[in-house]
Design brief:
By secondary structure, this protein is α+β, with helices and mostly antiparallel strands. Helices cover 44% and strands 13% of the residues. The longest helix has 38 residues.
């Protein structure tokens, strides 16, 4: 299903011919008609959108199976390679590149091909001193003849005869085996092309591969059999499509250590852009308003209703040393995908703490809150894929997410809007909680864990007013949220001393009394143990009560300021 969907994607987007792929190149080796190296020009330019230096993406011959093994130096790439092969930094590799180019261009007689053949026949070139700084062993180089705009050697600009010389090498030699992907007869290949997944070294890893010739085989299988009966056409098509998706910002997104690629059937470019925006929760600094807000409004207005039945695919991949790991593959419709993502964001809505700039919190931000360094890449290796799957399928959130947030809170971290939003969303989806999972403070609920969290917040505010600092959260929050019976009697005794320091503690004493009255309804106002679900309610109650206090305080300050301005004007 994965491969056939990618092959269909390749066939729908046929701007890249078979045997060619989109690759980037940093420099161009500029030749004259006699093959003499004139200069080495940088191909990078400043993006008008991001204002960053980027490399141009060209349509170049596919690199095929890549390089590996003892004789890897013998594998050269046509028209685009690194400095070892193209500039002769390694003489053995230059000879490999020379052999490849002279062989493929032997019967081609065009200005470009003659210049290329002469370049290699002249031997290892001497790079002019002024261009030495452009010699980079990690960069890719292409050729440019006569330094013309149309002199660059890629699919669109090179001579048709050069393209045909390469295309001939890509023609199937035929086969009598049925390809499992296309259902047609094809030559079955043993080595599949590599996929350039970010996070991998050595140019990528294959999606389908076999690590050992004799191990992990079904009974009776030959040791020289391919890892899967997939034809040359299907192999080239699915790897080309997948590499293109990974290079597109509108078709891929980083989720922790994983990478998700997504695409729609033919004609679904707008749908892909919408989903990319939903995943990233993009924000426009100029407008001060999130792009995602506009997308959500379009969804609610039904502006994209015509696309809701469009088939949509999402593939989550993870880098691996041997071959790329597939976290999951999900097939649905565009309407169902955006509906599930919208419900996810709606579950996350919680009163703001005034510090989180995101109106809608992207997945990477949720993952970062589970780590010490607040970096999504440090999250649990499996959590990113699990969370993404839960979002797009509208299923239960991974328990690891909830446990990690509870753990960070109990370790003494600040309870911010992101943590509160995660707890709220998990309580709604995983525990079917609806009473206390409101956007802001619920003063009517009698839920014991929630009320205990509110009470802790009031006691903390009382201490802060009395002493100028509030330390009970650092010292007692962990135990209070897990073992209230042991902690709250101590906190209530402390609150009496804090209240005695104030000239007027009526406001806090009234709040404390109202909350204790709610707890008196239970036979055990302070339970010995709170479950994980109840600990989440405790934290949410604490957050809601704290933000309600700050909101009231800010409103009071605003009123006083307006009164002072009115008196001044009078």
């Amino acid at each position: 299903m994965i491969l056939s969907s990618l092959v269909k994607r390749y066939e729908d987007r046929s701007e890249v011919p078979l045997g060619w792929e989109k690759r980037s190149a940093s420099y161009a080796i500029v030749l004259d008609e006699s093959g003499r190296l004139i200069s080495i020009d940088s191909q990078e330019y400043v993006s008008e959108k991001t204002k960053k230096m980027i490399k141009p993406t060209l349509i170049l011959p596919t690199v095929g199976k890549g390089r590996s093994g003892k004789n890897a130096y013998e594998t050269a790439f046509f028209l685009c390679d690194n400095a070892d092969y193209m500039l002769g930094l390694d003489p053995r590799k230059f000879e490999s590149s020379k052999k490849l180019h002279l062989s493929l261009l032997d019967n081609v007689d065009t200005p470009q091909s003659c210049a290329l053949k002469a370049y290699f026949e002249n031997g290892i070139p001497t790079v002019p001193e002024e261009y030495q700084e452009n010699v980079d062993t990690a960069a890719n180089y292409i050729f440019s003849v006569n330094n013309k705009v149309k002199g660059r050697v890629d699919y669109n600009d090179c001579d048709a005869e050069i393209r045909e010389a390469w295309n001939i090498t890509q023609v199937n030699e035929g086969g009598d085996t049925i390809c499992l992907v296309t259902g047609k007869q094809d030559a079955i290949i043993k080595l599949h092309s590599k996929v350039s997944l970010p996070g991998l070294t050595m140019g990528g890893q294959p999606l389908i591969a076999m690590n050992d010739q004799t191990s992990f085989r079904s009974y009776g299988a030959r040791t020289d059999a391919p890892p899967a009966f997939i034809g040359q056409y299907a192999s080239t098509a699915y790897t080309s499509a997948l590499n293109d998706l990974l290079k597109s910002d509108d078709n891929s997104v980083k989720i922790g250590n994983d990478r998700a690629v997504f695409w729609a059937d033919s004609g679904g470019d707008a749908a892909e852009e919408v989903v990319a925006c939903l995943f990233e929760a993009k924000i426009s600094d100029e407008a001060g308003e999130g792009d995602l807000t506009e997308v959500m409004q379009r969804i609610s207005r039904g502006d994209i209703a015509s696309d809701i039945n469009l088939p949509f695919y999402l593939l989550c991949l993870s880098p691996n040393a041997a071959r790329i790991s597939v976290r999951f593959f999900h097939v649905s419709t565009f309407g169902e995908i955006i509906g599930n993502i919208r419900e996810h964001y709606e579950r996350l809505v919680v009163v703001s703490d005034g510090r989180t700039k995101f109106e809608f919190m992207p997945i990477w931000l949720l993952l970062s809150e589970t780590t010490i360094k607040k970096s999504a890449s440090d999250a649990h290796p499996l959590l990113g894929g699990q969370l993404l799957r839960a979002v797009i399928t509208n299923s239960r959130y991974p328990q690891t997410l909830y446990n990690s947030i509870i753990g960070r809170v109990r370790a003494g971290e600040e309870i911010n809007r992101v943590k509160a939003a995660i707890i709220k969303a998990v309580l709604i989806k995983n525990y079917s909680e609806s009473e206390v999972t409101t956007m802001a403070l619920n003063e009517q609920t009698m839920d014991r864990a929630y009320v205990l969290g509110r009470l802790f917040s009031v006691l903390e505010q009382l201490q802060g007013r009395a002493n100028g600092t509030a330390t009970i959260r650092q010292r007692y929050f962990s135990s209070a949220s897990a073992n209230p019976k042991l902690t709250f009697p101590v906190l209530l005794n402390l609150s009496m001393h804090h209240a005695a320091k104030l000239d007027n503690a009526t406001y806090f004493e009234k709040q404390k009394g109202e909350l204790l009255e709610k707890l008196d309804v239970e036979n055990t106002p302070f339970p010995a143990i709170l479950s994980l679900e109840e600990q989440g309610k405790f934290i949410l109650g604490y957050y809601h009560q704290t933000q309600a206090h700050f909101a009231g305080k800010n409103a009071k300050n605003q009123t006083n300021q307006e009164d002072e301005e009115n008196l001044t004007d009078a």
